[in-house]
Amino acid sequence: MSDQPAPSSPIPNGQPAPPLQLNIQYTKDLSFEVPGAPEIYLSLREQPRVDLSLDVQARQVPGQQPNVFEVSLQIRADAKIKETSCFIAELVYCGVFTLNVPQEHVEPVLLVECPRLLFPFARNILADVTRDGGFPPVMLNPIDFVALWQSRRGQGQQVGTA
């Protein structure tokens, strides 16, 4: 990274730095468990009910410029038929972003725009892992990250910095 310009300086062609830059994205953690295998496959007669939970976290990356953040999408899919667990899938999908926005815009960019960029990739990973695990793929519906951020603000939570 030493050959890249500082985030707040103009980029080589004289243009100002972009307000949001995705530096890298990656799977930080992925877990897929079928607690009742192989019996669950032999007795599966209907589509399982899938309970989903999603969370977005953001933190400054230690040792970097103060405008470099890791944003993580944390998704859990818990599939059951009646009370029998079919599978549990957990995914933490992250991106490292450089922000060049006014301070008052940092939180909404981190918790709305950044996860919006990461979501299609996380959605694809979750669909692939559930399909490869022998079940119908879990296809997440689009997420309203603005509503998620607003509900989080209503609960008094703030962006975490570590």
Automatic annotation (TrEMBL):
One of its GO terms (cellular component) is cytoplasm. SUPFAM superfamilies: SecB-like. It is found in: Cytoplasm. Keywords: Chaperone, Cytoplasm, Protein transport, Translocation, Transport. Its main location: cytoplasm. One of its GO terms (molecular function) is unfolded protein binding. InterPro entries: SecB, SecB-like_sf. The keyword Iron does not apply. GO terms for biological process: protein folding; protein tetramerization; protein transport. Belongs to the SecB family. PANTHER family: PROTEIN-EXPORT PROTEIN SECB, PTHR36918. One of the proteins required for the normal export of preproteins out of the cell cytoplasm. It is a molecular chaperone that binds to a subset of precursor proteins, maintaining them in a translocation-competent state. It also specifically binds to its receptor SecA. Homotetramer, a dimer of dimers. One homotetramer interacts with 1 SecA dimer. HAMAP family: SecB. This is Protein-export protein SecB. It comes from Falsiroseomonas bella.
